[in-house]
Amino acid sequence: MNETQFDFGMVGLGVMGRNLLLNMADNDFAVIGLDLDPQKAAALETEAAAGKPVKGTTSAEEFVASLRKPRALMLLVPAGNPVDAVIASLLPLLEPGDIVVDGGNSYFPDTDRRVKTLADAGIHFFGMGISGGEKGARFGPSMMPGGNREAYERLRPIFEACAAKVNGEPCVSYLGNGSAGNYVKMVHNGIEYGIMQLLAEAYDLLKRGAGFSDDELEATFQGWNQTELQSFLVEITGEILAKKDDVTGQRLVSVISDRARSKGTGKWTSQNAMDLQVPIPTIDMAVLMRDMSKYKEERVEAAKLLPNNSLQAASVDKQQLAEQLRNAFYFAMITAYAQGMAQLRMASQAYNYGLELQEVAKIWRGGCIIRAVCLEDFRQAYEKNADLPNLLLDPKIGGDLLNRLGDMRTVLKTAIDKGIPMPGFMASLSYFDGYRSETLPTNLIQAQRDYFGAHTYERIDQEGIFHTQW
Predict the structure, then answer these.
(1) 157 and 301 share one domain
(2) Residue 1 included in any domain
(3) 365 and 333: one domain?
(4) Can you list the alpha helix ranges (DSSP code H) found in 48-107?
(5) What is the largest CA-CA distance in the chain?
(6) How far apart are CA 336 and CA 159, in angstroms?
(7) pLDDT for residue 296
(8) Which residues are catalytic?
């Protein structure tokens, strides 16, 4: 191969980088990968299908020189300083017009900084969220690129070929300016946090609150995935509950520690939503409950001193509860998506992204962790009204929630009676009830602020700003 033959390059040949590059090769693009580890560079060529133009190298000079111009290359390295270090090492070898894509979970202000820095050198920088894990990377992920629209045309044929497909449509689309891609992936991860927390709470209510057996739990979640709840996260929950531990013979989930870990993207979503003054309580609660899980020793002590005697409350009709919970979970899941989409709408205005939420819903329908059949409903809602402020205002989606509202309340009453914490479900219901309240009690808060701090208030019967000598 001559030195200008490769269509795309990848820096970082770990599982994700290698699989995505092999995916591109399977779609007949010539690809080259760079990694300082000779074994990873060699593994790329070993795993490539016979006859495919794939090369691995440990030489940055060879890597850059082998890419056709304008060069297009992606970094799949840990977020933070490693990204800046790789950029610094490659920058002297690049030329104006070249394109660098960061495929990691970078914090969006870092992406904005890198866009500006590389633009000064005439190089286009893209932040692109990738969802779907290692299997998705190999056979079709959802990809969320943001950057220069014209430069994206160099990337588009490659990304569309290797992305997941739904109804023949690729799960990738140009999203917007600057850090739009990383921002959309951040909110994707926040929604992911929310749905995972809701599934955990549903599992807890059925197991501890209703005494479901392992077989009943497995059957319930697998059954849910055959309904309007069909989604990747519900699907894998059923598979997880079916898995037996090779050591103990018990269900594996029962021997896994309840201390949850996180990489920060959920926290970033919550923090930035507060900056934008967008309420996302379901996602916030998911972040907080992961924090709560870390206080294991204190929780063990509290369980002794503050025993939950409510678990012995009257037994429940298992079949009825499972059906009510299915409707309640759908209700809560939809509100989690609605909160995330509302945040994207506000962020697009604040950061000049130019997001089209129909495109976001479309590329989330396949490949990504939060893919679900309900995303087609969201796509259609935004197709009808691109300026829809909140998914709850779509007549079909809002009507679906109203039809399930009674079961949502019944499930939460059961949880309260049993002493089972369901903060994600409660936050979802409070969000719904708050959003549809024409009047909220914050008039009292405004009066309180004026009383102790002379912060002033507005009136409903007169224009202007007022203060009272209380």
Answers:
(1) no
(2) no
(3) yes
(4) 60-65, 81-90
(5) 83
(6) 28
(7) 95
(8) 185, 192
